[in-house]
Amino acid sequence: MKRIIIGLFVLPLAFSLNSQTNRAGIITKISGSEITVRNENPNSPFLMGETLHLLTGDKSVTLQVTFPMQASAKCKLISGSISKLKINSIVYSGGIPEIKSPGTVKTAERTNDKLLKIDDFNTFLGFSKGDTMDKAVKIFGNPSKVVKGNIFTNSNDYYCWTNEDNCFISIVSQKYSEDHNKISHISILSSFSKFEHDMNKSFYLDTTKKGTVHYLHSKGFKDPALDLFGISREDIKKVLGFRSNEICIELNDSHHYWYKTWSKQDVVFSFNIDEDKLYSIVVYLK
User: pTM for the full model?
Assistant: First the structure.
C-alpha cells in the first residue's frame, strides 16, 4: 500500500510532448477555474494532490488533482495561464508533491492500487504535518468554540466549528510543552448522538445536504475521505486494503479502527457497533 518514493529530482522546465512515459489523460472540460481530465489509464486512477503538466509554447502549465474519480479527475491550475488550456490537450503526470524546496520536488509514483490509500491521509482537508492553528482559522474562519490550554497544566488548545446544524469539526493543538500553535489532530463527525442505556451513543447521519460534509464542500473541500462516511467496517478495509498495523479498540459501544500512515501518523475511523456505519474520522498530523 505504501507509495514507492522515487527520490528527489529537479523539476524539468520543459516536458517532451513526444514522450508517452507519463501520459496521464486528456482535458475534456474547462469550466471557470475547474478543469476536468479524462483518465487514459483506468488501472492507474488519479490520486488526490497529484500534479499534471502541459507544455504550451515555452511555458509549463501545471494542474493539481482536487477531486479524483475512477475515470476522470477535477483539477485546479497552480501555475501557468488557464487561457493556454484547450479541450483535448494531453496532460502528463508529475507525481504527488511531498516535500518542496527551491528547485526540487519529491514525488511518488502513480500505482495500480485503489483510489484512496491510508497514506493519502498524510494530508487531510488541505492540512499536513507542521501546519498551524492559525492556518485553520484562516481557512475555516473564527471557531464557534475555543478552549485555551496553558503551560501550567501542559494542556492543548481546542477549536471547534459548528457553523450549521449537524456540523462538527474540531482541531486540537499540540501540548503547550511542545508547540501549541501546531495542529495535533483534526476530527470531523457526520453523526448524531442519542442517550441509550445510561450512555450517550453516536450514530451515522448523512450530512451531505446539511452538516459537516455539506459545510466542508461549501468551503471548497473535495477530499475523497468525505465520501467514506456511512460505509461499513468491511468496506473501509476494502477501500484501504489490508494493513498489518490495523488496531481495533472497542469503547463506548463503538469500534475504533486505528491505522498508521507511512510517516507514522495515526488515522482513526469510528463505527457504532450496532449500526456499523462510519461516523467519525480523526487524523493526527504530528
Answer: 0.60
